[in-house]
């Protein structure tokens, strides 16, 4: 039986690990908590490990994995910017991500767009406090708006598809323009998108080229009162610039599912802790900002896809030395 080590198993993943382990003939060892230089030793005797995509895997962890005999990492996430690619290369450890249902994130982003333009946070808060007044909660109609999608890939293109029923204008900026999307959206330059969008929704990966793509300069080019949705990666947005944009009113609303410095916070119950993440505290305090803890991916279909494809990728690596999900270094 092929041995695989699962780091950070969540309770909702357990029945899926059991199901796919039986199907694929795997002997699974579960390690609570994240993969670190210390916990890497737990993988001794396994060629493959699977992890999630938030906690950094750096030089020291790769060294420890290599000493434990691990050759492959199968991420159960689409994002893999937590992997130090140079270190992976240096220790000859290959890794893969998963491409699960893009509908989960696309639907969530669509929901955040609607919640922001209809001021849902205020409506919920007030209703809970038995304040049923109308003042200050007037929304806008989608059909009157222009939505700008930055990164019209697997997820961004489904957002465009979702939006097609609302009658809004949909524009997109992407470094690769795809002819098959031209019926759903209109490609524009980055500056045109910033200037013309009432709502901007981010769907690029986090690369050097997209790091702090939304910053003080690019926010200054936006329409007054623009709404910003980030379901991509926290660091695509310069959080200080976002806060300044909201404080000045330049940004009229924001829906933030991902945030710089979220790693030890999102997906954990931290109710009784002093968080020490001031930007999160400030963002949460704004009446026009909805913060969700990196939950856009979290559907039944996506979690099943993530577990199944990460395990299949590891099996393929171990049996053939190849995986169609490999991120080539
Ligand atoms: P994808 O690769 O299919 O699409 C990304 C698109 O961005 C591509 O069309 C690409 O050409 C474009 N792009 C790349 N660099 C660009 C740049 N500098 N400027 C403009 N466009 C650029 O990826 P996807 O499956 O659609 O996922 C997008 C991102 O969503 C992931 O990388 C991940 O960071 C994020 N994500 C978030 C969650 C969540 O729960 N919030 C879940 C899954 C994925």
TrEMBL record:
Keywords: NAD, Oxidoreductase. It comes from the Bacteria. CDD domains: HGDH_LDH_like (cd12185). Residues 4-324 form the D-isomer specific 2-hydroxyacid dehydrogenase catalytic domain. InterPro entries: D-isomer_2_OHA_DH_cat_dom, D-isomer_DH_CS, D-isomer_DH_CS1, D-isomer_DH_NAD-bd, D-LDH-like, NAD(P)-bd_dom_sf. Gene3D superfamilies: NAD(P)-binding Rossmann-like Domain. Pfam families: 2-Hacid_dh (PF00389), 2-Hacid_dh_C (PF02826). Residues 111-296 form the D-isomer specific 2-hydroxyacid dehydrogenase NAD-binding domain. Coiled coil: none annotated. The keyword NAD applies. One of its GO terms (molecular function) is D-lactate dehydrogenase (NAD+) activity. The keyword NAD applies. Belongs to the D-isomer specific 2-hydroxyacid dehydrogenase family. This is Lactate dehydrogenase. It comes from Weizmannia acidilactici.
